[in-house]
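Render DUF4089 domain-containing protein in 3D.
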Amino acid sequence: MALDMETEALLNLGDAEAGPWTAARAAALELSIPAEALPGVIDNIALLKSQTALFVAALGDRAGEPPETFQP
């Protein structure tokens, strides 16, 4: 499975690492997250990680490949 580095980093996060990773990622992207919003953003990152893991597992060996264009 060939995923990009950012997806791999997200999937390898432990629960305790989500907060620091979110803050570091926001800083790297020059984003400012208000302190009162940060817990909600971290919860969303945890949900995104869970959904990403589900999709990667469902794709199996095809994860990381470019998507095919829909052909009706």
